[in-house]
Amino acid sequence: MEDLIDALKPGDPLPSERELAERYGVARMTVRAEITRLAAEGMVERVQGRGTFVAEARVAQAATLSSFTEDMRARGLKAGSQVLGQETEPADELVAGRLGIAPGTAVVRVRRVRTADGEPMALEEAFLPAARFGALAAEDLEGASLFTVLEERFGVRFPAADQQVVAVEIVGEDANLLRVAPGRAGLKFHTILLDADEQPLAYAWSLFRGDRYEIRLRQERRL
Predict the structure, then answer these.
(1) Is 105 a residue whose pLDDT tops 70?
(2) pTM to 2 decimals?
(3) What is the pLDDT of residues 12-62, one digit of tens each?
(4) Is 60 exceeded by the pLDDT of residue 63?
(5) What are phi and psi of 15, to 5 degrees?
(6) 3-state secondary structure the chain
């Protein structure tokens, strides 16, 4: 089955369960179980009333700290963005806590849809202290990398980041913006960029489509 999928293109339909059962000489229940496994691993996508199709390839998160633009470029995809909001506002308690500032302190909030080859991949919302990054509210971020703007325009360096990833359902307006059915799986990243002194520079959350993005880790056991 995996060899069959490799020979097809994303969006191509798979043969019916009956045809696959006949091809491989197995019961249809066996075929159905295998398709369920492939769907769980993101290799195929079931569409109610239409059949099973080869899924779009997933993009894996880089092991090093990199921007969305750098991630996409490394995989031969063109990164883009649609700015949904870019303004200065008071920090709520959550944002203030992540940035180590007092609630109500002015922050620049940037909200964007991030795209790969023109297709929505993630929603992104970043918060930065306005005292240092106030000019960011007027920057053209439509097709820009926020990392690059911070490094080149503001001269900051962030050698490390604290990051938490949780599995969520994509619902409401988020589902509309990402062009997925409500209830589809997503990965939500909470990231705090740190300077050389381990002080917060920025806080951001990113909601990625679970059918297009995955996390790959290399782990070593200490002996």
Answers:
(1) yes
(2) 0.71
(3) 899 998 999 999 999 999 998 888 888 876 778 888 788 898 877 665 555
(4) no
(5) -60, 160
(6) CHHHHHCCCCCCECCCHHHHHHHHCCCHHHHHHHHHHHHHCCCEEEECCCEEEECCCCEEECCCCCCHHHHHHHCCCCEEEEEEEEEEEECCHHHHHHHCCCCCCEEEEEEEEEEECCEEEEEEEEEEEHHHHHHHHHCCCCCCCHHHHHHHCCCCCCCEEEEEEEEEEECHHHHHHHCCCCCEEEEEEEEEEECCCCCEEEEEEEEEECCCEEECCCCCCCC
